């Protein structure tokens, strides 16, 4: 007889611990290169899009829902999600600590976890159009928030340099 605990993989817990550590680190004021934020945003967008495509296939509904979430955040949330720049130090900026990156990372983790569990148990909900659209939209929103934050810092640095 196999126990339930033995069937659960440990790697999601390791990823969760890593995300919590990264989020906690971002809760403190820190010096950041704007290029680093852009790279992070690009990585999050690529992973998010890959996650949508691998979970639901390269089909119109999931890709359009993902793009809608991304566009909504970039358009509507760019000012609200902008990190507070405390000072400019050469080509770097000192950002005020924020718990928002942790919340975004945990949101992505929760979405991916729920999707993985639903697919793993063979739930038919993963094939329902509303679920595909909602999950894809959510991935677009969360990863788009990283892009909105990076774009806000780049705009601020460019404006200060001009």
UniProtKB/TrEMBL annotation:
Keywords: Membrane, Transmembrane, Transmembrane helix
Membrane spanning residue stretches: 6-24, 36-57, 63-81, 102-123, 129-148
InterPro entries assigned: DUF6622
Record carries keyword Transmembrane helix: yes
Keyword Membrane: yes
Record-given protein name: Transmembrane protein
Native source organism of the sequence: Roseateles puraquae
Taxonomic lineage from the root: Bacteria, Pseudomonadati, Pseudomonadota, Betaproteobacteria, Burkholderiales
């Amino acid at each position: 007889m196999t126990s339930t605990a033995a069937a659960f993989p440990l790697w999601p817990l390791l990823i969760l611990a890593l995300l919590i550590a990264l989020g906690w680190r971002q809760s403190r004021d820190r010096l950041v290169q704007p290029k680093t934020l852009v790279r992070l945003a690009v990585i999050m967008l690529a992973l998010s899009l890959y996650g949508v495509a691998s979970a639901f296939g390269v089909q119109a509904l999931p890709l359009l829902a993902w793009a809608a979430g991304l566009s909504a955040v970039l358009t509507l949330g760019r000012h609200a999600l902008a990190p507070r720049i405390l000072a400019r130090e050469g080509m770097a900026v000192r950002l005020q600590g924020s718990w928002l990156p942790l919340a975004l990372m945990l949101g992505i983790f929760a979405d991916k976890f729920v999707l993985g569990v639903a697919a793993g148990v063979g739930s038919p909900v993963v094939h329902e159009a509303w679920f595909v659209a909602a999950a894809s939209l959510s991935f677009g929103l969360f990863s788009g928030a990283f892009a909105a934050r990076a774009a806000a810092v780049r705009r601020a640095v460019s404006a200060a340099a001009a």
